[in-house]
Write a structure and sequence with these properties.
Blueprint: E1 6-10, H1 14-26, E2 30-34, H2 37-47, E3 51-55, H3 63-72, E4 81-85, H4 89-99, E5 103-106, H5 111-156, H6 161-169, H7 177-189
Helix pairs in contact: 2-3, 5-6
Length: 196
């Protein structure tokens, strides 16, 4: 069973926090909340959310500062962040883009728009995660291939290329079996073999 995406909602106003948490929870998302910037950073590290809804205006540490901190950390550099603001959208968008925000919502929040943006960003995150996993798998496969080529190169110093390839690929049960018998027979017929 797939676990539902986990969202972190950050707002210093309890009513806004509850409204968003209830709405998103009712749609099947796992919701974690924070009421301030430092608490949000702690929750991101501890809970590993899939998306952050971040209020811009908070005492102490603004949403922009939180977003910048998230972007500075390699573990959260690509975490989707939606800035939520009641301020002038034109000015806030520029500040938000500079801080690293992925999207914006204006207060009062339109529920359909909120859910559409959350779904869209979660879809993008899922594709990014899948691509990252493919890259990791590809990297492992390339390392395995390089190791096999190095092994083959070492074997070719002692065996014919065809025999070395058979050993590395594992095509033959024991490619040296018949040769061992011949070599054994040759060594048994040598006179003064111990000194040799």
């Amino acid at each position: 069973m797939n676990t539902p995406p986990r969202l972190l909602v950050v707002d210093d106003t309890p009513a806004n926090l509850k409204l968003l948490a209830d709405l998103l929870g009712a749609k099947g998302y796992g919701v974690v909340t924070a009421a301030a910037g430092p608490e949000a950073l702690e929750k991101v590290e501890k809970e590993r959310p899939d998306l952050v809804l971040l209020d811009v205006m908070m005492p102490g540490m603004s949403g922009y500062e939180v977003c910048k901190k998230l972007r500075e950390n390699p573990a959260t550099a690509t975490l989707p962040v939606v800035m939520v603001t009641a301020l002038d959208p034109a000015q806030e968008r520029v500040k938000g883009i500079e801080a690293g925000a992925d999207d914006f919502l204006m207060k009062p929040i339109n529920q359909q728009e909120l859910l559409a943006r959350v779904r869209s960003l979660l879809r993008i995150k899922a594709l990014h995660d899948e691509l990252t996993e493919w890259n990791r798998t590809l990297e492992l496969r390339v390392q395995e291939q390089v190791a096999q080529l190095e092994r083959l190169d070492r074997l070719k110093r002692f065996f014919s290329p065809q025999l070395a390839e058979m050993i590395v690929s594992g095509d033959a049960e024991d490619p040296l079996k018949s040769h061992r018998r011949e070599v054994t027979v040759v060594f048994l017929d040598l006179r003064g073999f111990t000194a040799f």
